[in-house]
Amino acid sequence: MIPYRIEFAKPAIKQLAKLPQNIRQRVSDWIETLAVVTRPAGCKKLVDTESLYRLREGDYRIIYQVEDDVLLVLVVRIGHRGDVYRNLPDVKV
Questions:
Q1: Model pTM above 0.85
Q2: Which of 81, 72, 48 is closest to 63 using CA atoms?
Q3: Is the dihedral of CA 88, 52, 93, 29 positive or negative?
Q4: For 5-80, which CATH class?
Q5: Has residue 92 got a pLDDT over 70?
């Protein structure tokens, strides 16, 4: 199996950097896993979006998009469950 390329939207890079160190490490581990398993157990497709998925890590969420035709996982947003879903764009690569 060919691993997918992982890319980050600019806001996601900043959001990851702002997380507490222990949470940042766990979220980073999940993101690395997405290169091999793009839709792991526990991921959910977001309702009312074309192609966004979410992963849970405690109280934090990773919102990402999978582009199977170009083997790309785009991390769109990372944040606390209380506000990560606000004003979510449906990203097109």
A1: yes
A2: 81
A3: positive
A4: alpha beta
A5: no
